[in-house]
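Entry type: protein chain
Record version: 2
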Amino acid sequence: MTPEEMAEIHARCFTAQRPWSADEFSALRAGTHVFACVRERGFALGRAIAGEAELLTIAVSPEFQGRGIGRELLESFEEAARRRGALRAFLEVCAANHPAIALYRACGYAEAGRRAGYYRDRDGKRADAILMHKQLA
């Protein structure tokens, strides 16, 4: 999947906060420790280094959500992170993103902390970031 395709899907999914641009996806994917897991109409972007993995973002085209693609992408991210030596995975999610939080909890992620007012939506409202983690090994 090209950075342009990732940016298009990301923009359709992240309507409250600023979506990432094709240039941002391109720069991230050029990183040594960054990897992408791709399915039709969705992707997960992660980074693994020093025994830890971070889910940078995950997105599924809105018309394909609710079909298990997000779960498949999350599982693919975890497997790719394990292959890169990660023992733990971390992610951050907007406290208002209830479907994503439900997915992460169902897949074994637990809340590790919060960043108060971390996200700002396009209207200037703020929301907490929930930090979540999971043991992979």
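Comment: The domain at 3-135 is CATH 3.40.630.30 (Aminopeptidase).
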